[in-house]
User: What shape does this take?
Amino acid sequence: MIDTGLPESLEELARLRQGMYRVFAAAFLEPEPDRIRDIVAGTEMLEAMGLPYLAFYREWSRWRDAAVAAAGDPRGLRVEYVRMFATGIGGAISPPTESFYGADPIRGEVGEVLAELRAAYDRYRLAPTDAVADTLDHVSIELEVMAALCAREADSRSAANDRRLELTIGHQREFLDRHLGVWLPHFVARMSAAETVAFYAELGPAVASFVRHDAGVVRFLERSVMEPSR
Assistant: This one.
């Protein structure tokens, strides 16, 4: 048998996808030195799980190299993080929240977006817990939601729980179609238009390429779990 390096089962694929979402979620948090080192360690683990054979690897590898370089001297990242994503006198260059791209604050739509997200998290039985947990529409939170749903998928496959598996994949598709997959391209476009350090310049294309690829994976998975019941 030829060793392709790809995940050998859909359970392993779910774990790989979980890891990808978690690494990207961490990359959009404040760049503390320990966090950057953990990100690099995560990229190394994911490389061993078959990434070089997947369609988004070119963009991923460029960002991985930038992350490795940043881990050697992370001091400059903090200034860029604030400039790119944090609210200041002039506002962030690329606000990392869904409501910025999908809601009109004058018409009160921000509250609607947040209410819809809270309802989704309740429906998925997930509660944000990381450093930006009180910002329900932060990109890091939404990436962590997908990571948690991928972990639930892997657990469902391991337990051969077909009903839970079907529900969880449906939640993944719903969240990408209604939330993360809708506004992320606009967010990344603003990142790409800015002059910034390599870590953030390469992060945008990497996360966009992965999420676009994963949306196709999720649609395939949803068809595969629905067909036996038809």
